[in-house]
Amino acid sequence: MTKPHVVTSLAEAPDSERRRRMVIYTISMLTRFACVALVVFTHGVWQWIFAIGAVFLPYFAVVVANNVGGEAKESEVAKKIEPLAIDVGAEIRGKF
After folding, report:
1. 23-36 per-residue burial string, b: 16 or more CB within 10 A, e: under 16
2. Extents of the domains making up the chain
3. I need a labelling partner for 40 at 20 to 30 A (CA). Which of 5, 22, 74, 80 fits?
């Protein structure tokens, strides 16, 4: 049986979730572009720091964009509703 959906536990709307992920990813990629540009114009330790940022930012950008705020809220467990039990045995036994 599937888990019942409660209005307060529904996930974010697909359009707004996609927009949120694209904004986060775009900001991360602009930061990466800045790191790549700064690798060319800096020297020494800063050049290495910007190079490491340029190499590892794509991975972190995807991970962060896909995980931040995309989870549904957890709420109370919905009450299990049992099916209505109707005892027709007495009616059937009375006729025979």
Report:
1. ebbeebeeebeebe
2. 8-75
3. 22
